[in-house]
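Re-run with default settings, no changes from the original entry. Doing this only to confirm the output is reproducible before filing.
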Amino acid sequence: MVSTVIIGAGFAGIGTAIRLRQSGVDDLVILERGTRVGGTWRDNTYPGAACDIPSRLYSYSFAPKPDWSHTYSRSEEILGYIDAMVADHRLAEVIRFDHEVTGLEFDEPTGTWRIDITGRAPMVARTVVMASGPLSTPGYPDIPGIDTYEGKRIHSAAWDHDYDFAGKRVGVIGTGASAVQIVPELVREAAAVTVFQRTPGWVLPRLDREVGATTTSIYRRVPGAQQLARAAWFWGHESVAVGAVWTSPATRLIEMAAKLNLRAQVSDPWMRRQLTPDFRAGCKRLLMSSDYYPALQGDNCSLVTWPIAKICPSGVRTVEGIERHLDCIVFATGFEVSKQGAPIPITGRDGRDLGSEWSRGAFAYKSFAVSGFPNMYFTFGPNSGPGHNSALVYMEAQIDTIVAAVRVVLDRGIKALDVHEPAQRRYNADIQRRLRRTTWNSGCRSWYLTDDGFNATMFPGFASQFIAQMRGVDFSRDFRALRWADESDDAPAREAAGVH
């Protein structure tokens, strides 16, 4: 048995392990279903893959990197950063690859979690951290005939680097954050590219530049300079929330900037009309690109806005009856985000099933803990998504709270640390009330919402507010700590749980 099992070796899992070790918790194991670390950035290696949050902000404050090569990092550099954290903090010794977790069950007599693993014996842990992340399972659209297609099929999160696009007719389904990076690369390589657009997005220019040697040298010699740069980026992004999270005059400014960008890059009025969204900026994810619009106007690229009727063996047929023959279809359609149900079967106290409880939409107490499932914590849990700032800022705040919870359980010899249900209920009622006033709940369809409009994804506020709420977790007030002395458990049960 181990003190803590972390599920997932992406940004969240690696960050949690580092902070646990820094707090004195060394008895931990990371279970990773893949064969290397990296999570989303291990899987997303499509051409042009990069982050749309500045590098200084898309990194942990406790693991600064002074030598980012660009303002916005490419996927391989981000993956290298994760590898460096593993090496610097000697985490390779606690990572177990090819360990796919298939279920969790809380054992009340011993106050432990049993972790079921494909093809392996179960593990037992005092505490569990679910760090598998929301962007881990590729999602395909529900289009009739998708399985009948006889050409090459590639998902953005499972790229085939051996496929040669030269001379090929390529269709791209999806126009979100990955598509605006993929399309320009395909236009450079393929004979013809057809982009099937269901909904246009608000696109802002991505002002990327190479970081000079002088700047890197300053960051190396003066750590405070890098901290200052990070703070500047943070507060700059915080200001965007005024228009991106809530509808306000600032929302008009974002839309105006996006329309000016569109007008500057697209000369054809009809194409500009096709590329202009009919929803408020922020309702869907804002897109960052300076080469997507030019790529759409390439001689070998065509934009199709007719809805797709079906996918045929030889290509894609749209509702007006035209079938476009394609050698390859690229699905830039994102991930299956768990807004409803649990990512794996999880059984808590009294046989409670998390999948059933989340069947109408996921919820938690301050995004990281769920009542009835003691000693288990989530990174990037329900309602912790950012709409304007770095996901790692939110994740770091969650991780520090999770570390505090784990230390409470281990240091105080607590059998079960469980959220008070009334505290959780009050918190989520407040979150959903606040979400009603946000752009995400203003009427458009997005991956933030369940089919019936429940928002289990986003946090309705500033990143600084999220940080404050995580720092404000009171384990003595909002949690019930069941100690061994509170029940008539005998010594064997205590010993089985590693408590002496």
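Confidence is low (pLDDT under 50) at residues 488-494. The CA atoms of residues 59 and 296 lie 32 Å apart.
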